[in-house]
Write a structure and sequence with these properties.
GTPase Era; KH_dom_type_2; alpha/beta; 11 helices; small ribosomal subunit rRNA binding; 2 domains; three-stranded mixed β-sheet; GMP Synthetase, Chain A, domain 3; Rossmann fold; GTP binding; rRNA-binding; binds guanosine-5'-triphosphate; 10 strands; single chain
Length: 304
């Protein structure tokens, strides 16, 4: 039996049903994989474990936010998404006519699917339970006209209609490969995720090259000290590893004489202190893990 694994993301205008669909696919185990490096800079929203496949659903921050939707950054975001995932699900709610917002996203997807890696886009007609058969058929035709989709699948996340079919379709677009995350290891520690995110943000500030995709942030531990700090707040030791792929990237993060890393540390620390309501001693380590994104052994060592 061949095992497939890979990443998918849902895009679509606000309220298209992306989150609800993610939850329906993943079941109860909506997951934040805290303390683990993200293979992309997108947050893992959930993981579908099957005997024959593992489908990792990632978020595409900004894509569904109207402000950035119209902004310059959209192109980059979509481009990144398309090159990082194996399949994109474009959500179009059945109870709403195809509108300019949908057309805009559709055009971007089509263009980038052509000149990118050719990432397949599955058109997902969501909320099928809200309309009758006639209306659904009309909507499917309108969606078909919007672009060239790898598939068009009507679903209802609330009734469960065709959710399994969609899962099969998405899995069908994954390539052969080992599971990326251990089964059952979906934890829900939003604090660690946010701490990692704050460190990541600080580390990437002002950096424009390929570094973003090569940086993995792992929160090793958050340990309270027995003595509170002078001002009476709790005192936490927070140990974090930053993994990059090359020595040159390590040099960028650390900066001359460690100056940049110190800035990264103090900026992240301020955010973490505000987040956790505690004084924080932040311990940052930068390590090179060559090609960690592609190497299953490295992924294992990094906690995948
Ligand atoms: N009837 C019905 N309602 C749905 C379905 N899926 C989602 N909804 C509802 O549609 C609304 C939006 O769903 P979300 O999953 O939050 O949509 P989203 O695309 O993640 O929204 P943003 O995060 O704003 O982009 C919620 O009120 C859901 O309950 C469905 O299959 N059927």
């Amino acid at each position: 039996m061949t095992f497939r694994s890979g990443f998918a993301c849902f895009v679509g205008r606000p309220n298209a049903g992306k989150s609800t669909l993610t939850n329906a696919l993943v079941g109860q185990k909506v997951a934040i994989t805290s303390g683990r490096p993200q293979t992309t800079r997108h947050t893992v929203r959930g993981i579908v474990h099957r005997p024959d496949a593992q489908l990792v659903l990632v978020d595409t921050p900004g894509l569904h936010r109207p402000r950035t939707l119209l902004g310059e950054r959209l192109n980059d975001l979509v481009k990144d998404t398309l090159t990082e995932v194996d399949v994109v699900g474009f959500c179009l709610p059945a109870d709403q006519k195809v509108g300019p917002g949908d057309r805009f996203i559709a055009d971007q997807l089509q263009e980038l699917a052509r000149d990118g890696r050719g990432t397949p886009v599955v058109a997902v007609v969501t909320k099928a339970d809200l309309v009758g058969k006639g209306r659904l058929a009309e909507h499917l035709m309108a969606v078909a006209k919007l672009g060239e989709w790898a598939d068009i699948v009507p679903v209802s996340a609330t009734s469960g209609y065709q959710v399994k079919v969609l899962e099969d379709v998405l899995v069908g677009h994954l390539t052969e490969g080992p599971a990326l995350y251990p089964d059952g290891e979906l934890t829900d520690e939003p604090e660690a995720v946010m701490v990692a995110e704050l460190v990541r943000e600080a580390a990437l500030e002002g950096v424009h090259d390929e570094l973003p995709h090569s940086l993995a942030v792992v929160v090793d531990e958050i340990v309270p000290r027995e003595e509170p700090s002078n001002d009476g707040r709790p005192f936490l030791d927070v140990r974090v590893h930053l993994f990059v792929e090359r020595d040159s990237q390590k040099a960028i993060i650390i900066g001359k004489g460690g100056s940049r890393l110190r800035d990264v540390g103090s900026q992240a620390r301020r955010g973490i202190e505000a987040l956790l309501g505690a004084r924080v001693y932040l311990d940052l380590h930068v390590k090179v893990a060559k090609d960690w994104q592609r190497d299953p052994k490295q992924l294992g060592r990094l906690g995948f």
